[in-house]
Design brief:
The protein is α+β, with helices and mostly antiparallel strands. The chain has eleven helices and nine strands. It is elongated and about 120 Å long.
């Protein structure tokens, strides 16, 4: 009986540290991922009691995720800071583009390249500035930041590839706004179009019928591109023409040259030329070669103007434009003669024959 008293008095002393540790765990504050809101909350609360009570009310509405605590006040502060940063970045980017376009020493391609580089620098600086102003603890997001960053990396791989490809195209000036390149539609039919804009992801190419093709920058960098105005905007076009074998070839060539020179868009230097291409089935075929320096205004309309003028010139000089025709020769034979005789007899002795 006397040995049991000491054990009963030692039990409350052993439980006291456990209760203190539990109360400390309950009272431990949850960390906020945005450190900047703490300083803003203290500064605003110290200025006015009414404002401080509003801030406390907004801060009381919170969501806890593990050790993180995100309140309504945190969301409002982050939204305001992000809006200000994005507005400043957009305004500075717009102002910079205006200043770059005033640099007359740079051509259009160089201006576009400078604009893109400055835009990338501005937005990257805005991102890191926002992180610094908000005081976001990125280690708090380490749980899912790795997987999220990996997913973003795979998802934006093509986007960043096209961005770098666009910058490379502008740096080597192989593709630039205003160039005329050959493009193919979904059916494989090739046509030409003028580059209107080189964007972050794709190049905008507009054809003569106002169809706009958006071609990824990577495709223009790794694939073969037919650029009509890479080193010079002069383009030679061909107009095929056929005349009769009975025509005066020298006169026909002179009329072809006259028709080509009469077109306003055909260049005088280098002058148009006429080549005899082949002896066709029903005509002697020629090709008129003429040069233009504005392919963006169309090629088919120049060919049409030359052919129309040549039509009337050939008509005035009695030069025939032949059409395909065939002569059929039937060789005589005994079987053919008997067949013809039988056909003649059937006609004479048929039901409609005259008596």
């Amino acid at each position: 009986m006397q040995g049991a008293l000491p054990t009963s008095t030692e039990t409350p002393q052993a439980e006291e540290p456990v209760e203190q540790a539990w109360s400390l765990a309950e009272d431990a504050p949850e960390e906020s991922p945005v450190a900047a809101t703490e300083g803003i909350r203290e500064a605003v609360s110290g200025q006015n009691e009414t404002v401080g009570s509003v801030v406390d009310t907004l801060d009381a509405v919170a969501l806890s995720l593990g050790d993180m605590r995100i309140s309504l006040f945190d969301v409002l502060i982050v939204s305001v800071i992000l809006f200000v940063i994005l507005f400043v970045a957009w305004f500075v980017s717009k102002l910079t583009r205006k200043l770059v376009r005033r640099m007359t020493k740079l051509d259009n391609t160089q201006q576009l390249l400078v604009e893109k580089l400055i835009t990338i620098i501005i937005w990257a600086s805005a991102f890191f500035l926002g992180i610094d102003l908000l005081g976001i603890d990125l280690t708090a997001l380490a749980v899912f930041s790795g997987a999220f960053g990996l997913a973003i990396g795979f998802g934006l791989q093509k986007t960043f590839g096209n961005l770098i490809a666009g910058i490379i195209l502008l740096m080597d000036r192989s593709i630039k706004p205003g160039d005329v390149i050959a493009v193919a539609d979904t059916t494989g039919k090739e046509t030409f179009g003028q580059i209107r804009k080189i964007g972050i992801r794709a190049v905008s190419v507009t054809t003569r019928d106002q169809r706009e093709y958006l071609i990824p920058n990577e495709n223009l960098m790794i694939n073969q591109v037919e650029n009509w105005s890479y080193s010079s905007k002069n383009v030679r076009m061909q107009v095929p023409v056929g005349v009769s074998y009975e025509a005066d070839m020298n006169l026909a060539e002179e009329l072809m040259l006259e028709a080509a020179k009469s077109c306003d868009r055909v260049l005088k230097v280098p002058p148009p030329t006429v080549w005899m291409s082949e002896y066709g089935d029903s005509s002697v075929n020629f090709t008129i070669h003429c040069w233009i320096q504005d392919p963006e205004d169309g090629v088919g309309n120049v060919r049409s103007a030359v052919l129309k003028k040549l039509w009337w010139l050939l008509k005035e000089n009695d030069i025939e434009i032949p059409f395909p025709q065939r002569d059929l020769h039937i060789r005589s034979s005994d079987q053919m003669d008997r067949l013809l005789e039988m056909m003649g007899d059937d006609r004479r002795h048929g039901p409609n024959a005259k008596e």
